[in-house]
Structures are given as C-alpha cells and as structure tokens.
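Title: Comparing notes on inverse folding

I've been comparing how different people in this forum approach sequence design from structure. To keep things fair, I'm posting one structure and asking everyone to reply with a full sequence. Here's the target:
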C-alpha cells in the first residue's frame, strides 16, 4: 500500500510517500537522481520527490503527476487506486485565487441599511500618514439588502417578506451569479432569518451558500461578514479542484490540511479554512520533528521559492482569530504565521541607486535565470553566483524539456553585466560576487525582521530557541539568519527540503468550534461556560468522520480587559482566579503591564477536538566508522562568504554518520536541498539523521 503526503507550493510541489511495495521501490531505484528512498523499520520505505508546480508542457496537475511518477505509470495508464491507502494534501489553490482575485462571482445578502458596512470596515489606517487611502477591493460583485431585523436581545423587529426576498434572489441568480454570502445583524445568536434566506437560495438554485452563523459564529457584523464572503468566494473554486483530484483517485481516502494545522476529509474542506493550507503543513512538520529531536522552544523558518513563512512555538500551536491575508479580512482560527514575499524565486532589482529584493517572484515558470526558461535574476541565482549552490548537486529538471541542470553561465553573465550597470550609475566599484552578496544580505535582513515580529516584539528571547529551518532554500541562508538574530542552534531534518509535505503525514485530524460569550468573567458564569463548551465539543466531534482512538479535547477562552479589543487566549478551567492569573502573565509578557482594577471580559470560547493519526517512524542510523575518523569530502569548491572567496569542502549527507562534526565554511548536499555551514558554525549529525548546527563562540 502507498500513503502519499503532498504540498503544492508556488514553485515546487513536494511529495513524501510511505510504501511497503517492493515493486515500487525496484522501479524507483532505476532513477536514483530523481527519488530519495529511505528504508524504515517493518519493511517500509519513505520516498521523497520534487517536481515543478507549473509545467504545462508536461502535466496538468503536479500532485497527480507525482503519484504517477512514483508508481511508475506511463501517460495513458490509469492510477491503480486500490494500491493507495490515503492521500493527504496541502494546496495553494485558494490562496492563489485570492491573491489573483480569481474566485467565483459572489452576491452579498445583508440586513437593510448595512449595504456598505463591509466596504466601510473598521476604518483602519495601516499607514497613518498616507494622503491617498487605497481601499481593498471587495470580493462580492453585488449587494442585496434584505428588510429584516432582530435586536440585540433576540426580539424580532422586522420579519422577512418571503415573496419579495425570493424575487430578489431570483433576479441575482438570473445574472449568472451562483455563490452567495448571507450576513444579518445579530445572527451570530439569532439564526432564524439567515436560515430562511439560505432555504430560499437553495430553492432558487445557488450552488454555494455561505451563512454567517455557520461560517463565523461570533459577534461583530463586519468580521463575520468578511469571513463569510471569503468562504463564498473561494469554496467553489476549491471544490472544483478537490473534485478534479478525487476524479483521478476514485475510492482513495483524500484529506486536506486546514489553516489551523489540522487535517479534514476532502468533502468538508471549505474556502475559509484553506488560505494557509500549505504553510500550515510546514509548521506541523517543523514542530513535530523538532519535538522528536528534543527541542521544545522553536522558531520555524520555511523559505520556499516564492515566500518565507515563520512561526513561534512554545509548547502548543499558536493561532490567531483575526487575520488579513491578501487584502481579505477573516475571523477563523489560523496558525499564527508571518509571511513575507522573500524566497528563492524573489526577483532582484537595482533601481539606479539601491538594491531591492522582491516582492515579485519568478515562480517556477519562468523561474530564476538559472532555470533555463529566460527568467530574471533571483535570490537562487545570487547563491549560485556565490558558490553556495552548485548545479552538479541539483536535480536536472530544468529547461523546456525538464531534463537539464541549472545554468551557472547565464548567472555569471547577468551578474557581471549588473555589476557594470551599478558601477556606471553609482561610481562605486563592486564585483559581481559583491553584488550577489549584497542582495542576499537584504533578503536575510527582511527574513530576520519577520522572525522578530513573532518573537522579540512579543517578549520572547530567541537566543533560547532553536531555528528549525526547512523549505527548498532555507538551509542556504540559515546560518546568516541565526547570526542576525543572535540564535545559537539550527535544526535541519533530513526531509527539510520537503518538510511541508512531510508535515501532512505527521498531522492529526482537528476540528475547532467557537461560540461567542461577551460577558464578565465571574465564578457564577462557569456553569454557563461549561454548557457552551460541551455543546461546541459535540459539534466538533460530529465533524470527525472516523474515530480511531481516544480523542483529545482542548478548551480555551479568549479574554480581554473591559473597554479594550485585544484578546489573549487561556485554558478554560473551573478556577476564575487561576484563569485571571494566566491572562495577566501573558499580558505582562506581551505588553509589559497589567491592569488589576479592570474587569475581564470573555469574548468567546473555543473547543478543539484532536484525533491522533498514525505517523511515519524515523529510522535510526548506526555509526560504523571509528570516532576519530573524520568524514571525507567529495570535492572542494570555491564559495564567497565573509567578503572573500574560500576553498570549501562539499560533503554528501548520506556519507555522514552519527557524531560526525563539520566546521564551517562547508557545504552539505543532499538530493532535496543544499546546506551552507558558515564561518563560526559547527554541524553535527545525530543518530536520528538530524543535522544540528551550533554556534561555536
């Protein structure tokens, strides 16, 4: 049987598969340059494979093609689905649709008098001195006001005129819109009017009906409305993609990664849960592998081709309820991930006076200049120029036919010309390698600043943390990032280059349900909170279609000081004094003060139900070389670091054994990534095949 874990990123699609089929392994062994095969206990193997996400000349969908390549099928052969046990995926389909504004046409049905409420929003001014305010584009195409109203206490002030409402819905339907968002005042508590319109929409024929009290059952019309519109906008395109994948894999159990770090069955995957699907897999992979290696305080650093994602872990996954992604506001639990547009494909610009890295990306087609598709210079090209990436250690998957190595000559040619242009414009002499190093320094500073936002700016001392580095490009700059932040340890898993995909296999099924409270925290409220959390627990359990073992239940409260809008999450316990103490400790750490005289308000409660899944084991490796015998490098190359060229040994990771130490500068190569060990760093391999980099001074 075959288990497949896939992450479709902006540049590469990563696939990790687990199989006990000797036939599959025999077939893949004929192509050692394309597949990494690792034996596991119990006659199983892990297969690691990377392919370009966009390669229209070769295939339609990268994940499906990856499965076909692993099984060894020709173009016309059907996939033998009986041999596949499960496919777990993360996808950027919804994210890309949001970024490019290519979701479905949506109509918003809202309480009469509030037609412009979502357009007005909260009047936030991110750039307070901007003289020209550019409002975000609205995702809905039309707005229809429904004459209805409940008051805040549940009294029906205006009932719905069913005939008039149905006529309005039919008029919109006749324009070709098939997706609707229904958002009414106070419907987070009083659902009847929304249910009436949802029933009418179904009768009229709308294909996607997103109802706010189901999508985001919390108070605040604007937040609830924004989330509902996003769900209506993205769910249809997501559903089409899921159906397309499912049609290629009939009968196979198909699961997707949600933005909150949990898996969900394909048929329950919704637009509102899909925005951080891929990055969430990376966080899960980083956290779970770091814990296996003995690290509990972790900064995750995922540098891919298009973007870099960073997150903070201190014992449990951090989530945020309110977020803005690609200009769309949402209020659903998502992993607290800080994303910046800096990756291996980030394009390098010189504007006549200064260097700039990104945010534009070369993607996978055409990709960086070295991809042989006519792309512009990118961060990856800078590392090629500096001798930190060498074509002979990269797979030959480039060019129009996907069978050529990286092109180093075009990189040298382009940087040489760029250096001449810079000298001409600034009169400052610089060599091509100094130009490349300058661009890398800017990219590193941008990524280090992203880490500071989720750590130092929130009261965490990163020098006590390990930097869990992964993604196809992360290990090339890990030491530079750690030096900038004052971090002393870097952790590199053997599957670091595909850790987002591996994380799909390490994830659990999770269901989160929330309910609004908006009452002062008192001991007398505890019975009501217990009743609410029991109801939410029942709802969450109903989402999990198969229960394999004992479920884990996590109950939380979102608290804030009265008169403020900043909530902090604490564990729900019966002791009010204990919960206040937890809140104050977090508030002191986050903001540097507490207000003892203020009443605490419970904004909402949440219940998370966790179904533990069977996860891949990690094989231990045994040292069979004397301790005093050092590893032998495969060659010595030239690498530009610390402002000069150095003769640098290159080691293959598979040649290293437990307790081997490598002093920088050095390069460690593997089939899925390149690891650069800078000056002042030492790399050591553990018996789990983990590579731990330690600052020597």
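Reply #1:
Here's my take.
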């Amino acid at each position: 049987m075959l288990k497949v874990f896939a992450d479709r990123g902006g540049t590469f699609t990563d696939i990790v598969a687990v199989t006990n089929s000797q036939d599959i392994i025999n077939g893949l062994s004929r192509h050692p340059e394309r597949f990494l095969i690792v034996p596991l206990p119990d006659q199983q193997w892990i297969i690691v494979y990377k392919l370009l996400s966009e390669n229209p000349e070769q295939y339609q969908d990268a994940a499906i093609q990856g499965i076909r390549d692993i099984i060894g099928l020709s173009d016309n052969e059907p996939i033998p689905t009986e041999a596949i046990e499960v496919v777990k995926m993360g996808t950027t389909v919804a994210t890309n649709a949001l970024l490019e504004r290519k979701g479905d046409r949506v109509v918003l049905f809202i309480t009469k008098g509030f037609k412009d409420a979502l357009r007005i929003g909260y009047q936030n001014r991110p750039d307070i001195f901007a003289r020209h305010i550019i409002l975000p584009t609205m995702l809905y195409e039309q707005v229809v006001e429904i004459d209805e109203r409940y008051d805040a206490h549940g009294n029906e002030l205006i009932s719905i005129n069913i005939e008039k409402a149905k006529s309005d819905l039919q008029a919109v339907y006749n324009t070709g819109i098939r997706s609707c968002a229904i958002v009414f005042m106070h419907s987070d508590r009083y659902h009847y009017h929304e249910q009436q319109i949802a029933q009418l929409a179904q009768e009229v024929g709308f294909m996607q009906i997103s109802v706010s009290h189901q999508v985001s059952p919390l108070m605040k019309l604007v937040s609830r409305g924004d989330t509902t519109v996003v769900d209506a906008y993205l769910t249809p395109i997501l559903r089409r993609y899921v159906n397309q994948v499912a049609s290629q894999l009939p009968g196979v159990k198909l699961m997707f990664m949600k933005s909150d770090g949990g898996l969900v069955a394909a048929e329950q995957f919704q637009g509102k849960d899909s925005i951080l699907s891929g990055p969430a897999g990376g966080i899960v992979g980083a956290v779970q592998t770091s814990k296996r290696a003995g690290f509990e305080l972790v900064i995750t650093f995922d540098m891919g081709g298009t973007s870099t994602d960073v997150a903070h872990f201190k014992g449990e996954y951090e989530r945020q309820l309110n977020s803005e992604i690609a200009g769309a506001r949402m209020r659903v639990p998502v992993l607290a991930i800080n994303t910046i547009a800096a990756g291996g494909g980030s394009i390098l610009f010189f504007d006549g006076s200064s260097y700039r890295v990104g945010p534009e990306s070369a993607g996978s087609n055409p990709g960086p200049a070295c991809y042989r598709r006519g792309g512009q210079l990118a961060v990856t090209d800078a590392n090629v120029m500096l001798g930190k990436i060498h074509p002979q250690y990269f797979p030959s998957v480039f060019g129009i036919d996907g069978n050529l190595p990286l092109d180093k000559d075009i990189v040298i040619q382009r940087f040489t010309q760029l250096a001449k242009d810079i000298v001409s414009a600034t009169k400052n002499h610089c060599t091509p390698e100094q130009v490349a190093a300058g661009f890398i320094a800017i990219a590193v500073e941008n990524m280090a600043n992203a880490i500071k936002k989720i750590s130092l700016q929130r009261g965490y001392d990163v020098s006590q943390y390990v930097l869990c580095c992964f993604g196809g490009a992360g290990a090339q700059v890990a030491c530079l990032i750690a030096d900038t932040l004052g971090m002393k340890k870097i952790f590199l898993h053997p599957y670091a280059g595909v850790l987002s995909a591996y994380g799909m296999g390490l994830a659990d099924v999770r269901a989160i349900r929330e309910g609004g409270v908006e009452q002062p925290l008192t001991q007398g409220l505890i019975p009501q909170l217990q009743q609410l959390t029991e109801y939410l627990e029942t709802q969450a359990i109903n989402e999990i279609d198969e229960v394999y073992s004992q479920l884990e239940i996590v109950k939380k409260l979102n608290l804030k000081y009265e008169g403020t809008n900043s909530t902090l999450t604490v564990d729900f316990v019966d002791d009010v004094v204990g919960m206040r103490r937890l809140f104050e400790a977090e508030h002191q750490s986050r903001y540097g003060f507490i207000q003892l005289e203020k009443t605490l308000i419970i904004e909402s409660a949440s219940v998370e139900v966790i179904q533990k899944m069977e996860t891949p084991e990690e094989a231990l490796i045994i040292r069979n070389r004397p301790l005093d015998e050092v590893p032998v490098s495969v060659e010595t190359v030239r690498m530009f670091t610390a402002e000069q060229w150095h003769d640098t040994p290159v080691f293959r990771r598979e040649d290293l054994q437990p307790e081997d130490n490598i002093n920088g500068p050095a390069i460690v190569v593997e089939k899925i990534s390149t690891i650069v060990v800078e000056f002042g760093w030492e790399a050591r391999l553990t018996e789990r095949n983990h590579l731990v980099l330690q600052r020597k001074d």
